[in-house]
Each structure stands twice: as structure tokens, then as C-alpha cells.
Amino acid sequence: MSDTKKARRRGRPRQFDPEEAAARAQHLFHARGYDAVSVAEVTDSLGIKAPSFYAAFGNKGGLYRRVLDRYTTTRGIPFDVILSSDRPVAEALEALLEEAAHRYAEDAEAAGCLVLESLRCNDQEAREAAYALHRAAEEMIRDYIAARHPKEAERVTDFVSTVMAGMSAKAREGYGTERLLAVAALAGAAIARDLHAEA
Fold first, then answer.
1. Residues with Cβ within 8 Å of residue 74, at least 6 apart in sequence
2. Cα–Cα dist 22/68, whole Å
3. Which of 1, 143, 172, 185 has the highest count of CB atoms within 10 angstroms of its CB?
4. Geometric angle at alpha carbon 183, from 73 and 160, rounded to 5°
């Protein structure tokens, strides 16, 4: 092989990796919000051209759906594990809020919940994708509570969902894990009192 061909092979651009693109975009979306991140910024950070991006994801909304899929497996809260049937409901819900506190505050640059913080974005496609995951999480919480406290399921689910949204917002404002855990403990105590009173 000639030296010229060897040089061309060594200098050939690396293959575009959609998973790497999703990982980088996840951090960008989480850190700055969906609306603030442009396709050009994503392609520049990866050193790729726009046609490669559009071939892989279709558009920015398509990339965001890929990011959400990745987020649920990398930083998403494991609802199915925490909401197990062999523990008291109030205890499990407090554990859920504690897990949220840890995850929302673990990365100061990308604080809060990516899904919750995307519910207010301007792009309808991205907003609907975030809402789908949010509704699914609420349904898991509601079904878990309803199995043992059917009359309280709707009210307590609304409370837990509201607390999580507030914790996410406060994490974005700079609240650390300790402060969020204090909120989780207070909310857990309130849930326990409420369910006990209704028992």
C-alpha cells in the first residue's frame, strides 16, 4: 500500500455513532433545556455534518425521543423496582422521593429531571414525548397505591407527582441532595399520616 493510501486511511473520519450522539445530546438537553440546544450545536460537538444527523434521527424531535429512551435506562428512576408489593405504600413512596432527590441533585450541570423539565418546552413533538413518559410514571404510582388504597390513589399520586416536580425545579435552582432529602422525608411523613388516617 502506498504512503498516500495509508495517510488517507489514518485520516479518514470515524464512523458516526448515534449512541454517542444521544449521550452528548442527553447532557446538553438536561443541562440547558431542549429549546436552548440547536441541531448545529449537536453536530458541531460530534464533528459530523447535518446530513448524517438527519439520516440517523430525522429531526431534533427524533433525537430527543432517542435521548429519552436512553435517559430512562441511564438516569431514570426505577419505578418498578422501588414500588414493590412487599413493602408499605408510604415507605415505598418515600423511597421513591429519596431516589428522586439523589438523582436530581447528583449532577450540578444537569440537575433535575430531564422529563419533567421538558414538559414546558416549546416544541410540541418533544413536549408530547416527555408527557408520554410522565403519564406512564404517574400511572405506575397510581396503580401501585390503588392496589391497597384505592380511594386515596388519585389524591396521593397527585401529591407525589407535585412534590417530584417541585424537587426537580429546586434542583435546577441549586438545591443539593441534603435539602431535597429533607423534602422527601417530610412528604413521606405526610403520606404516611394521610394513609393511616384513611385506613
1. 26
2. 9
3. 172
4. 60
Residues 101 and 113: their CA atoms lie apart, in Å, by: 10
Q: Which residue has the cell 444521544?
A: 22
Question: CA gyration radius for the chain?
Answer: 21
Torsion of CA 72, 77, 80, 83, to 10 degrees: -160
Tens of pLDDT, residue by residue over 93-144, are: 999 999 999 999 999 999 999 999 999 999 999 999 999 999 999 999 999 9
Q: Is the dihedral of CA 113, 28, 36, 50 positive or negative?
A: negative
Q: Which long-range contacts (CB under 8 A, 24 or more apart) does 183-188 make?
A: 183/97, 183/101, 184/94, 184/97, 184/98, 184/100, 184/101, 185/94, 185/98, 187/94, 187/97, 187/159, 187/160, 187/163, 188/90, 188/91, 188/93, 188/94, 188/97, 188/98
- CA quadruple 67, 43, 126, 32: dihedral sign: positive
Rounded to two decimals, what is the model's pTM? 0.86
In 96-130, which positions are buried (b, 16+ CB within 10 angstroms) versus exposed (e)?
bbbbbbebbbeeeebbbbbbbbbbebebeebbebb
Coil/strand/helix, residue 112: coil
> How far apart are alpha carbons 157 and 98 in whole angstroms?
16
**Cα–Cα distance measured from residue 66 to residue 74, given in angstroms and rounded to the nearest whole number:** 12
